[in-house]
Amino acid sequence: MKRISIISLCIGGVGGAVLASVLIWLWQIWMGHIRVLTIVMTVMVGAVVFVCCQIQSFRVVKKAKEAGAHELEKYRSYYRLFGSWMLLRNKRRVLAEYFEDHRLKNVAIYGLGRLGLCLYEELRNSTINVKYAIDRDSAHFSYLDLKVVSLESPLEPVDVIVVTPVSEYQGIVEGLRKKGSSPIVNLEDVISSL
Question: Which of 55, 85, 115 is the endpoint of a domain?
């Protein structure tokens, strides 16, 4: 079923109010009972409907702009992070150095988006043991040679959990802290510390 937009409903509402006003006026003229009060009331009803539709339309547009701005900032932060990561790789530095320097042998990766998969690929060829990954869509990653669990599953203790959705870090940390006591680090902090 196709969704009807708020703007279409507003246009329909205003059109309906105008048509009703014209019909009421014509009927009043036909009957000889047209009064100024009738005209004023129909104009007021039409104006109220129009103003309400404009307010609703403004709210919908504002909400859409805010959602778009959040998505844009998310992708900008990912772009900057990938850029920093590639600079490290060009200098022959790998993220495993961070974990080795901090004596973190067993890690879990939260989020298997592009960043999470790249981190997994880099760490699996190192001395660092990626014990498991956490992702909302855990069944989607059955092709990986890695245990993938959902956040609702019990989490095994590890030396550190690396959060890859950096733009949602604070909310994710709150959820992870309720599940266990493993230390949590942001991928952005790992990259920037090297």
Answer: 85
